[in-house]
Amino acid sequence: MKCYVCDIDLTKENETDEHILLNAIGGKLKSRRLICKDCNSRFGSDIDDKLAQQLNPIANLLDVKRDRGQPQNVKGTYENKEIIIEPGGKIKLARPYIDKGEKVVHIEASTMGEAKKVLRGLKRKHPELDIEEALKNAKRSKDYLPSVTINMSFGGKETKQAICKMAVNFYIFSGGDSKVIKHLLPFIEGKEEEAEVYYFYPRSEVFYKGEKDVIHTLLLVGDPLKKELYVYIELFNEFKMVVFLDREYNGEPIYNSYHYNVVTNEEIEYDTPIRIASKDLKRYSCKDIDESKFKERMTLLFQRIDKVITDRRIHEITTKAMEEMRKKYPQEENPVFTKEMIAYFSNRVAEEFVLSFQHRLFKKEK
User: Fold this and answer.
1) Residue 185 has what pLDDT?
2) Could you give the CA distance from residue 122 to residue 142 in angstroms, rounded to a whole number?
3) Which of 112, 121, 222, 308 is at a distance of 20 to 30 A from 103, taking alpha carbons?
4) Angle at Cα 245 formed by Cα 193 and Cα 186, nearest 5°?
């Protein structure tokens, strides 16, 4: 087996895991029989990282599972305050905020340690300040923000290069002939400006998904009658792309698909082949991003993410309440549920539920 980029023989010394779907966005499909270490390293730093950075906010909110590490923190804003979003949607202030009045100073910080640092700084100008007393009187609160603004972009040449490499990887992984895709390598390597890599905006979903499914999809189709060889790619449901590998394809019919649900962390199989009509491929493919359609897709995606996060939060609330109840009422002393236990559990769930979702229960009037 040879590296399809540089044609060097792949050996135990130079082979490496090549993620066909980027591991940074939760991709698990990989192979050691695609490219060598040097080519893997070069592409990873040049183009794959760009795509990973663009999709990191989605990976972060969904807290996708990776082979190594976690998604990076994301910066956002809320009421003109900078915030940090940690994997899974947990939020904290990016820095302490100080509101100085005539006689009172209000400090808002994520931790008591941060608040203490601010107080030490204030004490230099106000020696009379009692830091320990101020900390003792600090109000600890746990709240959930109703809305947060995240800036996100997608597209550009490097992104298209990464998508093209993803398509080529899947084709070779599926047993394809490396000679067929040689004309795409100059584009992937940045030596040519254009290749047939398109954004795809179909009028309806290409295949069915449940309301809380968030799926990465690779679909390889080779049709000698229509002379088409292409890979259809969906990332997180809404980033839809088509890469044409050969417009004069005359080989054997090919069909291979791969679907991975990043919410449930499992591969999915569909009983029937997924077909995209040639007229739809032509009608709904665009060289450039359609900003209005992109915004529509992001709205749908974030609505779906919100449902996933809500379900996870409800599970966390009930699990935590059950653990607290078991500690308070050990099973050996309470073999069956009592009214007191049920009341305790119900109160803990209700308290956390209202705290977590109060912005939905009590919407502010405009």
Assistant:
1) 96
2) 25
3) 112
4) 35
pLDDT at 34: 96
φ/ψ of 230, rounded to 5, equals: -145, 165
User: What is the Cα Rg of the chain in Å?
Assistant: 26
To which residue do tokens 């308070």 refer? 328
Rounded CA separation 219/200 (Å): 14
Q: What is the pLDDT of residue 366?
A: 42
- Give one DSSP letter per residue of 295-356, joined into a string: HHHHHHHHHHHHHHHHHHHHHHHHHHHHHHHHHHS-TTT-SS--HHHHHHHHHHHHHHHHHH
Token pair, residue 267, equals 């591969």
Which distant-in-sequence residues (6+ apart) come within 8 Å of 189 by Cβ? 5
CA dist., res. 62 & res. 149, Å (int): 16
Q: What is the pTM of this model?
A: 0.89
The DSSP secondary structure of 278-304, one letter per residue, reads HHHHHHSEESS--HHHHHHHHHHHHHH
pLDDT of residue 69: 85
Distance CA(41)–CA(6), nearest Å, equals 13
| Residue 210 buriedness (CB in 10 A; 0-12 / 13-18 / 19+) | exposed
Spans of the chain below 70 pLDDT: 44, 142-146, 358-366
The answer to whether 23 and 66 have CB atoms below 8 angstroms apart is yes
Cα–Cα distance measured from residue 159 to residue 235, given in angstroms and rounded to the nearest whole number:
12
Q: Beta-strand (E) ranges in the chain? A: 18-19, 30-31, 74-78, 81-86, 90-93, 97-100, 105-108, 197-200, 215-223, 228-235, 239-246, 254-261, 266-268, 285-286
Contacts of 52 (CB under 8 A, 6+ apart): 22, 24, 25, 59
